[in-house]
Specification:
alpha+beta, 4 helices, 5-stranded antiparallel sheet, 6-stranded antiparallel sheet
């Protein structure tokens, strides 16, 4: 740290409600309020919403980052590695590295939740998928697996004796 840095207080970053990057991927509206570019790679923060009957993410595992989901409205059906559980507002899922997880909206109303990624960078997965689909690619399981692998993420096969 230089002498100048020691005496210059950092300034907080205030984001207004409309400030962010909206990325629509397979029916999930990801609204990134903070990305790697804002936090020096420390974390990313998003608000996402999905309509009833929408799969947010099939079960998968991250090796390079943790995710924390907090439900604001509606219900999310979360895959926890041991099966599924449907939760509502106020529930928090900590999907740390190496833990299988996924989510969908099996409820009758739209769902809205927050997600924190640490470290940041996984927002680039959504940018990649969005760009490919916008260019005419179909969001197949193979395409998603290719993009996931670029971000140290792999699909998780649910054992046949679990839901």
């Amino acid at each position: 740290m230089t002498d100048h840095q020691a005496h210059t207080p950092a300034r907080p970053l205030l984001r207004r409600p409309q400030d962010g990057e909206l990325i629509d991927v397979a029916g999930v509206a990801h609204f990134f309020r903070l990305t790697s570019e804002h936090t020096g790679g420390l974390f990313a923060f998003e608000e996402f919403s999905l309509a009833p009957g929408t799969i947010g993410a099939r079960p998968h595992v991250h090796d390079g980052h943790d995710e924390y989901f907090y439900v604001l409205e509606g219900e999310l059906t979360l895959h926890t590695g041991d099966g599924e559980v449907t939760v509502g507002p106020g529930h928090l899922l900590a999907a740390t590295r190496g833990t299988p997880h996924g989510f969908r909206n099996a409820g009758p109303a739209p769902a809205r939740a927050l997600c924190l990624y640490t470290p940041a960078g996984y927002e680039n997965y959504f940018r990649d998928v969005h760009a490919a689909v916008s260019a005419g690619a179909e969001a197949t399981d193979e395409l998603l697996a290719e993009f996931r692998s670029r971000h140290r993420t792999s699909s998780y096969e649910v054992p046949s004796d679990r839901p």
